[in-house]
Amino acid sequence: MVCVTLTPLGVTVLGLLCERAMHPYEMCQLATARRARVVKIRPGSLYHTVSRLEGDGLVRAAGTDREGNRPERTMYEITDAGRKALVNRVSEMLATLGSDFPQFPLALAEAHNVDAATVVELLRERLGHLEKAIADLETVAAQADSAEVPRIFLLGDEYLLTLAGAERQWLSSLVKEIECGDLPWLTPELLDRLERSRRPRSGADKD
After folding, report:
1. What is the pTM of this model?
2. pLDDT of 120-156, one tens digit each?
3. Residue from 114, 102, 11 nearest 59 by CA
4. What is the DSSP string of 138-203?
5. Cα–Cα distances in Å, from 104 out to 134, 155, 158, 159, 167?
6. Contacts (Cβ under 8 Å, ≥6 apart) of 24
7. Which CATH class name applies to 8-95?
8. CA angle 53, 55, 58 (to 5 degrees)
9. Partners of 76 in the beta sheet?
10. For 34-74, what is each residue's pLDDT tens digit?
């Protein structure tokens, strides 16, 4: 069988089908409820992913299902090859760092090109978004705890909550440093000093 590289949505679909057979609409509903914070879920993309997985032999049709007067829907189940591909991909993702380059670290690296007051304002705006994200994740965690959802199903959200909390703490400290001047911002004087430090030293300077 040809080696298949699973997309995040492909991993999500196979993970759902490890539980039981289901039709794409149900997959979409469950994926949105469980994984919307870690995977971009769009109905069209999910249906396309199921079709691709079927073509690759990782899932197969397993009959049809009908609810009330709705049209019949094709049910899908995971194949042995699909389980193997899922285990291999999840194992790879667990052990290695991602190769993508997120935008925020780059923005921080170039933030000195924006005036300090504006940077503080923008970071405070980001902190506001973080606060909402943390509140949402905490609500989900509380609801899951009330419903006695096993923790193993919540590790993704737990990780996101930990990252968001750490970022909030670090950004809050950074904003204070910029505001009080403990972190000197880019000035013509600083640029001049950097330029002079790069120039070759003369013999007289060496002495």
Report:
1. 0.80
2. 999 999 999 999 999 999 999 999 999 998 999 999 9
3. 11
4. HHHHHHHHHTT--GGGSHHHHHHHHHHHHHHHHHHHHHHHHHHTSSPPP-HHHHHHHHHHHSPPPH
5. 18, 24, 21, 18, 11
6. 46, 47, 50, 73, 74, 76
7. mainly alpha
8. 45
9. 22, 61
10. 898 889 999 999 999 999 999 999 999 998 877 767 778 99
